[in-house]
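lol forgot to send this yesterday, sorry. struct tokens for the thing we talked abt
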């Protein structure tokens, strides 16, 4: 069951106080780096991804250089991450697409960015919102999905439907920030097992539906 407008205002107020400048923990210096880092971060920690991209971007700082990279050389760098072979192929293909269709630049619309290999709405929302300040969606990762359900903000299971529910509750100019705030909250407080409810700024508004004493959903 979804939250009413009054409760949602309180949730947003508490999140704003706790995470006023919420953003990604991936390290990046330009939209290209954020795009590639976000693709590589799938099923990997941001810390490990940052370790890898530090080396990767030193050797391949832009789309043209990565587009011309040898697959085995990229694999050697990306190897510490899970699914490194597929990820290496994907980021090279993405770089080639950027060069061939977008002049080596990251496109600024959701319609265009999801045409890139390995890019879905979640990645698109992160890159557009974080790099360009363009709010085209709310990035629903595993943390956002978990926190949204525990708070009763959605009862949907599919990522796109969860996103639609959240976008209806939050003003468009807050979409990017809200996604990052829920990610940080889920990563450090509302964790999957043994959530830190006693430290949670959202505890007064959380029904804890489906969460037992061990924190399992």
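and heres what i got for the seq, position by position
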């Amino acid at each position: 069951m979804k939250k009413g407008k009054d409760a949602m205002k309180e949730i947003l107020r508490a999140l704003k106080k706790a995470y006023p400048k919420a953003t990604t923990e991936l390290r990046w210096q330009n939209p290209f780096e954020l795009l590639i880092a976000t693709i590589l971060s799938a099923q990997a920690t941001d810390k490990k991804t940052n370790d890898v991209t530090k080396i990767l971007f030193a050797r391949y700082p832009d789309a043209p250089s990565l587009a011309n990279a040898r697959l085995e050389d990229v694999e050697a760098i990306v190897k510490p991450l899970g699914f490194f072979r597929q990820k290496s192929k994907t980021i090279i293909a993405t770089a080639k697409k950027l060069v061939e269709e977008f002049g080596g630049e990251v496109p600024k619309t959701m319609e265009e960015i999801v045409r890139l290999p390995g890019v879905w709405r979640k990645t698109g929302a992160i890159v557009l919102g974080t790099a360009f300040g363009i709010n085209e969606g709310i990035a629903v990762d595993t943390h956002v999905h978990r926190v949204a359900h525990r708070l009763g903000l959605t009862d949907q299971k599919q990522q796109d439907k969860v996103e639609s529910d959240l976008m209806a509750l939050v003003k468009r100019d807050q979409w990017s920030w809200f996604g990052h705030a829920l990610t940080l909250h889920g990563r450090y407080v509302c964790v999957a097992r043994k959530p830190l409810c006693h430290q949670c700024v959202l505890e007064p508004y959380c029904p804890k539906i489906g969460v037992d004493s061990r924190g399992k959903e």
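Residues 209-217 have pLDDT under 50 and may be disordered. anyway ping me if u want another try
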